[in-house]
Amino acid sequence: MVTHALPGLSSSTSTFLVSHQTISFRHLYPLARRPSLHLKKPLTVTSLQSPECDPSVPAEVQTFWNWLRDEGVVSPKTLAKPGVVPEGLGLIAQRDIARNEVVLEVPKRLWINPDAVAASEIGNLCSGLKPWITVALFLIREKFRNDSAWRLYLDILPEYTNSTIFWSEEELSELQGTQLLSTTDGVKEYVQSEFLKVEAEIILPNKQLFPSPITLEDFFWAFGILRSRAFSRLRGQNLVLIPMADLINHSSKITTEDHAWEIKGAAGLFSWDSLFSLRSPIPVKAGEQVLIQYDINKSNAELALDYGFIDSLESRNGFTLTLEISESDPYYGDKLDIAESNGWGETAYFDIFLGSQLPQAMLPYLRLVALGGTDAFLLESIFRNSVWGHLELPVSLANEELICRVIQDACKSALSGYHTTIEEDGKLKERKLDPRLEIAVGIREGEKKVLQYIEGIFKERELELDQLEYYQERRLKDLGLCGEQGEIIFWEPK
């Protein structure tokens, strides 16, 4: 995890840390399967004709289409062809397409994945490397080879996207205070570290297999291509590039991710192979773009990091709170044992999205971290198997007050780190902005809205503390010593 915490906000027993970014490296390997959208040169005119006769389609794309036709992958009957769209390149329906109708099928012999690397000249060298690194090296090497089997596909790949890993320092300065900035820095450090290792261990000792110098810039290019274009969730495939299929663009209006299958089928006149089957999740009219949903669960920060765009949906705006059991806590060992027994650890990360409920385990973990004073009896071994159930409900007024105060203070601290206000960002969004500045403004505005949302939840909760039922009241009720209105029942001796 890439986490950069704000200064700890401490109580007498614990330290709360609110992270200034958490986007998990689980997205690095295996990489997410989402196609990229952007060519190096911006294109604006929509193509409704075939690539062969549409002058707005770049020559290299037309050559790429002809290659696919020669390979038997496409034909005049193929339902979608490359076209120039506002996003760059996309797939345009050549006739009406029904929901779940097959748009394109690409045989495995044209896939670029770890299997393709293993069968290549560098396969033995890459056997012990992370899958994404093996494919990255393969991509770079093939890019430098004029006789590459994927030459015409490589020629249409962009030199960069609007992913934040490609931003200049000046552009990144617009992300001041955001979690995305610290995540981008962390990812760039990670990629550079991996490059230095693979350069020393693989590239330099095997110059005969890597005749062209491979630079860090080349490695970032390959990382960006894989980050933005790789498909996964196929049978046995966690990282695969599919030529032509990766031209398809994203739509936030599509609410299903069911669009890709690996099937067995005819891969030519006399061949049988695994096929990547791309299907349209919704009906599409002739001349319209065929679109898919890249990932319903990704935040705008993740979309910006992976693909170089953000979604207009407010629910994509997220912020990750990092909570930690401090080693200085006198009950550190007991709390850590309880956390680990319930699937958590010393540090816990909670992704919160605008308008959504708090993660289910967040309040129990908060109460555990804040537990102390007269409430510490719940940490005794006799409660060890039941304490998490008690933490799912308010423990005490003091415990809930501490939680509310610390989270509100943490949100205020995070909000002070941005160099603009929500109102200023809103005014900027009314103007025509450079795509990267538009992303930056959208990200920082979204994060601030989520922080205000979180602060509001705990401010409202603080106002209702006197109305909550706490552990001691529940316990007295269980023993029959407390009425429904909370009054203590006294028994008079007979």
From TrEMBL:
S-adenosyl-L-methionine binds at residues 87-89, 229, 249-250. SMART domains: SET (SM00317). The lineage of its organism: Eukaryota, Viridiplantae, Streptophyta, Embryophyta, Tracheophyta. This is [fructose-bisphosphate aldolase]-lysine N-methyltransferase. Signal peptide: none annotated. Substrate binds at residues 229, 233, 246, 261, 294, 307. Its EC number is 2.1.1.259. Transmembrane segments: none annotated. It is an enzyme of class 2 (transferase).
